[in-house]
Amino acid sequence: MKIMQVTVQVGQAETTSTEVLVLTHCDGEAVAKQNAALLDQALGGSLSKLVQSKEFEGKANEVLLYHTHGRVPAKRLVLVGLGKKSEVTIETIRQAMGSAAKRVRQAKVESYSVMLPAVTPDGMSSLEVAQAMVEGAILGSYQFTVYRSEPASGQDVAEMKILVPQKDQLRQVTEGVRRGVATAEATVFVRDLCNHPSNVLTPTRVADEAKAVAKAEKISIKILEQKDMELLGMGALLGVARGSQEPPKFIILEYNGSKKKDERPVVLVGKTITFDTGGISLKPAENMEHMKADMTGGAEVLASIRAAARLKLPLRLISILPVAENMPGGRAMKPGDIVTTLSGKTVEVQNTDAEGRLILADGLAYAMRYKPAALIDIATLTGACVVALGQFAIGMFGTDQALKEQVRKSGQKAGERVWEMPLWEEYFEQLKSDVADMRNIGGRGGGMITAALFLSKFVGDCPWVHLDIASTDWSERERAYIPKGPTGIGTRLLLQYLIDRSL
After folding, report:
1. Rounded distance between C-alpha atoms, residue 334 and residue 211, angstroms
2. Which residue, 393, 432, 447, 486, could crosslink 419 as a Cys pair with Cβ 3.0–4.6 Å?
3. Which fold has domain 5-165?
């Protein structure tokens, strides 16, 4: 998908010439109190009549297309609801822009304009509002059409203009647009990678994508091949990869925008299983096609470092992607096998479908070599997360209260919320093995917790947060700016955390 260009200019609703003008409206409010009073006057009170007749009420994500018939410079209006004025949040603005973008695309226009909302949440700057607007608009326009022989319905919109009423708002709104484009672009990149089928997006293709990112953004890259992993002793990652014809990869990317010498880095580690059959512990056939997106975590840490470089964030960032395909085969790892991880700890593999924590064990142990100031791993790790949290929250665990709070706040801003779960040592009883240091599953009870506790054994005393995105990475239905299929949720959370840390 080609990302539309977003610009900012000073303008008023009643004088702006455009194919489509998007206006926000709050439920129960008079048009005169919004930013369209003079426009309504020029249209003979038509907008007020639409509201009074309840043809358009302004409920959250309600959308109406209105033809102006030449009475004002804008050819068409798209009215989009924000819900009750007292309940408007940065997320309702983001969703409204996603809903409006879909309607604009159906109108088959090349460009449109949108007024900065007159009603915004208390304490929110125009920078934050503009960032949310851009994210919603770009992500709401998302389509994946690479493998379709017929053209998609509607066309990609080339340009969106944000209109601000006053010149003194230009600077903040322009910076918000810059951030919004970067975060939305990163999410689109993740969605695209996750939508590619696993016969295309192999571990080798992931490595090629990482090389392209490194070259374009002047980021340093190191790729460990199978022989390198064998020399290092990455027995967990190699064990997972054994059943596949596709060779595993271990990718390390480093961006340094810090002006401080010897600054300790933020390290991101993402689970990158390009397809997960479950291995010998084979998954059920139903919905197994979703497992092409089991590399979402890796795609997100790759997209995050690309965006950090594009935003020129003043920090040192390392992204690590342990990449493999989990397949059954004559050489595949079997239940009961014991693997020796990079850390030296041994693991009895009681279920080969609990492979994500194995590759992350080696990824986290490698990350510790950088003495991270903060270590965050992100992974489609457990079905238990889906059971516990449904589709609207990311499961969060961690060892550092300050880091957890930073991640929580960034998630709230991004509209990608986290919910903390306990990381209590008592749960480790379920992971004790008779023949190794630990086993890779702990039974049905507390499955998300035992998986996180397993990972905690590979991070030492470093400030660490684990994000389980298995509940949010795939959507069964289309929402305001979330498509059906891979969502890319987690990407903007990571980026917002990096932005907030840089301020």
Report:
1. 33
2. 393
3. Leucine Aminopeptidase, subunit E; domain 1 (3.40.220)
Question: For 319-377, how does the pLDDT look when each residue is reduced to its tens digit (9 = 90+)?
Answer: 999 999 999 999 999 999 999 999 999 999 999 999 999 999 999 999 999 999 999 99
Strands 272-276 and 249-256: what pairing? unpaired
DSSP 68-115: -TTSSSEEEEEEEEEEEGGG--HHHHHHHHHHHHHHHHHTT-SEEEEE
CA dist., res. 67 & res. 288, Å (int): 46
What does 28-45 look like in DSSP terms, one character per residue?
T--GGGTT-HHHHHHTTT
**Catalytic one among 76, 191, 357, 492?**
357
Domain ranges of the chain: 5-165, 190-502
CATH number, domain 190-502, options 3.40.50.720, 3.40.140.10, 3.40.630.10, 3.30.1360.200: 3.40.630.10
Name the active-site residue from 211, 283, 310, 409. 283
> Is residue 264 flagged as an active site residue?
no
Q: State yes or no: is 484 an active-site residue.
A: no
Q: Give residue 211's pLDDT.
A: 98
- Alpha helices in 218-351, H assignment, sequence order: 226-232, 235-241, 296-310
pLDDT digits (tens, 9 = 90+) for 232-289: 999 999 999 999 999 999 999 999 999 888 899 999 999 999 999 999 999 999 999 9
